[in-house]
Amino acid sequence: MIVISDTSPIRGLISIDRIELLHKIFYYVNIPEAVRNELLQINTLKDQITFFLNQSWVSIKKITEEKKLEHLLKYLDRGESEAIILAKEIGADLLLIDESKGRKIAKSLNVDTLGLIGVLVIAKRKGFITDVKSHLDLLINKTGFWIGQKLYNEVLKSVNEL
Hints:
The chain has helices spanning 7-15, 20-26, 33-40, 46-53, 66-72, 78-89, 100-108, 116-125, 133-143, 149-158, and strands at 3-5, 29-32, 58-61, 94-96, 113-114. The chain is mainly alpha-helical. The protein has one domain (3-117): Rossmann fold. Helix 2 (20-26) packs across helix 8 and helix 3 (33-40) runs antiparallel to helix 6.
């Protein structure tokens, strides 16, 4: 499975010390150069990000479609734009992205998406974590991750935690 990730899912997982879930679930993750650059600007997580970027299961790729990038930059930030373009360029099976506008654009280009919450749900179903609730609560309280109460409850119901 070819997986591309935007900045947000990586940042979230690093913030709660669960970045290894990407490797356990997907084995190999590709990121565009812009995502690497965005991650390196997060000074509070510098050591963890450097560790992540140096993993053998992480590949940093350069996009080639500069014209498409110019177009997407009208709507999204550089990391999201390059992640979507890279997903199309290499025929990714899945794009990890949280931002709703980015997901909508990716889906309009026939790119399947999954957010950080979806990664946690898969992690529980595969037995890599025992619960989703504590991880969501940590994301909310430690990183300011936003999730509406309705979605929060739906997610917990879907994994039999509510």
